[in-house]
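Chapter summary example.
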Amino acid sequence: MDSHPEWRLLPRDLLTKIGEKLPIPHRACFRATCKDWCSAVLPVVIPSPWLLLVGRNSDTCTFLSIPAKRTFTYSLLPELHGVQYVGSHAGWLAVLYRNLDVSLINPLRATRICLPSYRTLPNFELLDGSCAHPPLNQFSYYSVTKVIFAANPTPHNYTAVTLYGIPRGEITYAKAGGDRWNLLQTTSTRNRSYEDVMYHDGKFYCITFEAEVFAFDLSGVSPTVTVVAESPSLGLTHFDYHTPLSRITSIHSKYLACSSTGELFLILRQVLLSYESLGWKAIMVWRYNPHRQPCWEAVNNLGNTSLLVGINNSISFSAENSPGERRDCVYFTEAPVRTIVDGREELNHSIVVYDVEQGRWAPANSPLQPHLLPPIWFTPSIS
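The structure predicted for these 383 residues follows.
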């Protein structure tokens, strides 16, 4: 008996019947097997973006299509058990294991790309039996902010950037063929502390605590950098409210986002433990305009666009292509929500939505419940 059967040679009508009976996302996995299987089954039409919801110590995960308001459950791959999710982009997840190994995983294709271990991070040393960073079992929760990577990675062609370190935010990069993480800095970017990173149009955009924005090009042998925006020395004015630089650096989390048309946005979120009581000044949105000084102009309307930020590479989508979904909003996936479980208070995570034009928080319009782990934006790369 042949130990390697030619599965692609199965009768087309049999493949069609099998594929039609499979639940989502298993049908998507089925179509990704080979061209013959793909052509035998109609494509899965579940509009993105999706949210990936994972509970601690769970054997399953839940995908939620925001536009379709539809959920489906998926058995976790063995490689996704007990991991910390640290990034997402174009159908791939970045995950961190307790032994500090790092991988990119496509959960629908069951494909894995191993990145260099975090034990190779700059300044990661064992001193007298203790770690220069927090203890290993706390490393993923307190030190790694996110991993951002270029789209369509392969084992022989990938580029990834890690934002890590508390209280100082460092950025490092790794490329296919390398065996370690390298500090990402140039002569003009030394001694910076970073707060967010985003991949767009072949470059990695990084924002510092002082609201400087740099664009790093890692396609060559050595990194090159372009200064996109200098620090607003006197702060920023958001209509009738002025935010001094001291407040921007001390009490506001910073996010970078990009629209589908290439517009760059800066989002400030005031760091508080509860979002319910926040007013409009807790969230401020600016659009980058290189033809004016200061280069950031306040925004009170995103039109049909909404921005999705979190530990993922930031995403934008148009409400015109997502009937019934909210327009002119910023979605956050790491909002703290206090809940009572078995008589005790827990600080979980949920998705909250900020209406830019109305200047207020809006309901998420989804069946999402608070989770112990932050939800993750996910854009499937196969249909």
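To summarize the output: The chain has a mean pLDDT of 80.
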